[in-house]
UniProtKB/TrEMBL annotation:
It comes from the Eukaryota. Residues 15-52 are annotated as: Disordered. Transmembrane segments: none annotated. Residues 50-152 form the Gfo/Idh/MocA-like oxidoreductase N-terminal domain. GO terms for molecular function: nucleotide binding. Gene3D superfamilies: Dihydrodipicolinate Reductase, domain 2 (3.30.360.10), NAD(P)-binding Rossmann-like Domain (3.40.50.720). This is Transcription regulator gal80. Residues 164-316 form the Gal80p-like C-terminal domain. Pfam families: Gal80p_C-like, GFO_IDH_MocA. InterPro entries: Gal80p-like_C (IPR055080), Gfo/Idh/MocA-like_OxRdtase_N (IPR000683), Gfo/Idh/MocA_oxidoreduct (IPR051317), NAD(P)-bd_dom_sf (IPR036291). Residues 31-50 have a biased composition (Pro residues).
Length: 406
């Protein structure tokens, strides 16, 4: 089962990135990379697409901080730096604008740029806005101005999801009867890194439902189909979040390494438990439970099954970040008749061979597919999502919130 080959697109695209936050794990950051500990390398989740791109401008909270980011991330010194969206929008050398900031800052930055820019394309991390109204406003303005758009639902380019879909489409397990998912969110447990404190506040629009679940379920829906109807339960089981000075990945390795410190506490108003059950459009029943916190030691952070008349397909991953890809993604097929279980190898592409950070490979595939579309190519099997697609994700989230309030 082949994965989509990635083309060589012989056209340069200019890229500019507005206001990435200091803690961002993107290719560009608003300030020099933080140094919380020796086990926390900064890895880009939104890498510069190559070899078809050139970073020509950077927007930050000030031109000085933008210049510091250029130096810290070893970007070309010829990169223009800006301190406000209006000046940035007037730059006529930009073809593609990439917004990589906290979700509650998307609209304040993008709105003035959308009204003025001559760029022909814009990329924004998902979710597009902090709520449905913001997403609809941004998508409508981009549509009215004829700007091509991408939203960072990079799970559509993840080999794991494509292989899962190919198995179902092949008829190997027969008619799908049920889909079952249990996953842990890694974040949203007893404690989180202090820079993620905003995710405990539901008003910011960045939380377990809008980020973790939305990315995860977009990948799943591309493989198994959309929801026909569902019931939902959302709850807050940990009303307070302790704030750590280092991420969960940090472990002291020597006696001289600093231990993790709890440096604060915030009230949680965003949900840490998500349960859905219902029917897919193809008639199959589904059940999903995504919770905050770390997985049980020695068990997968996510298990995704599709049970069919003739067999079952199972995916296990270390976390609910299915859209990231990464080591530990395992796809297996159980044949009911032969009783055999086969592990299906995941295909590799140029970004795997170049060993980009795992979280960067999906965005790299999206950029590559988008570059092809700008040169007249097709969307390549829904590898990338538009802002109109992002609005549909927001509508699902809004429906979940409405049903949970009943």
């Amino acid at each position: 089962m082949p994965f989509f080959p990635l083309p060589t697109v012989p056209i340069p695209q200019h890229i500019a990135t507005p206001w990435p936050p200091p803690q961002s794990v993107s290719a560009l950051s608003a300030s020099p990379p933080p140094t919380p500990g020796p086990s926390t390398p900064i890895s880009p989740t939104s890498p510069t697409p190559h070899p078809h791109t050139q970073i020509v401008a950077l927007l930050n909270t000030s031109s000085d901080s933008a210049a510091a980011a250029v130096k810290a991330h070893n970007i070309s010194p010829s990169t223009k730096t800006y301190g406000n969206p209006e000046d940035f929008a007037a730059d006529e050398d930009i073809d593609l604008i990439v917004c990589s900031v906290r979700v509650d800052r998307h609209r304040p930055i993008l709105l003035p740029i959308l009204k003025k820019t001559k760029a022909k394309a814009m990329h924004c991390e998902g979710p597009l806005g902090k709520n449905l109204a913001e997403a609809e406003e941004l998508a409508a303005l981009a549509r009215d101005r004829g700007i091509k758009t991408i939203v960072g639902l990079q799970g559509r380019a993840a080999p794991t999801g494509h292989v899962f879909k190919q198995i179902l489409d092949s008829g190997r397990i027969g008619k799908v009867l049920s889909v079952t998912i249990t996953a842990s969110g890694y974040n949203f447990g007893a404690s989180d890194l202090h820079t993620l404190a905003y995710t405990s506040d539901i008003s910011t629009g960045g939380n377990l439902v809008t980020i973790h679940f939305s990315h995860f379920i977009d990948t799943v829906n591309q493989a198994v189909g959309q929801f026909k109807c569902f019931n939902v339960l959302l709850d807050i089981m940990r009303p307070k979040t302790l704030l750590r000075d280092r991420p969960h990945t940090y472990t002291p390795k020597t006696p001289s390494d600093e231990p993790v410190k709890i440096i604060g506490e915030v009230e949680r108003t965003s949900h840490d438990q998500i349960m859905l059950q219902g029917h897919l459009e193809n008639g199959a029943v589904f059940s999903i439970h995504l919770r905050g916190g770390m997985p049980f030691p020695g068990t997968p952070g996510n298990e995704w099954r599709a049970y069919g008349e003739k067999g079952e397909v199972r995916v296990t991953t270390p976390s609910a970040n299915l859209h990231f890809g990464g080591p530990g993604h395992v796809v297996q097929v159980h044949d009911h008749e032969s009783k055999e279980v086969e592990e299906v190898a995941l295909p590799r592409d140029v970004f795997d061979e170049e060993e980009l950070p795992w979280a960067a490979r999906g965005p790299a595939r999206v950029y590559e597919a988008f570059a092809e579309s700008l040169s007249g190519g097709e969307r390549r099997g829904e590898i990338f999502a538009t802002w109109e697609d992002a609005v549909e994700r927001h509508r699902l989230v809004e429906e979940m919130y409405e049903k949970a309030r009943l």
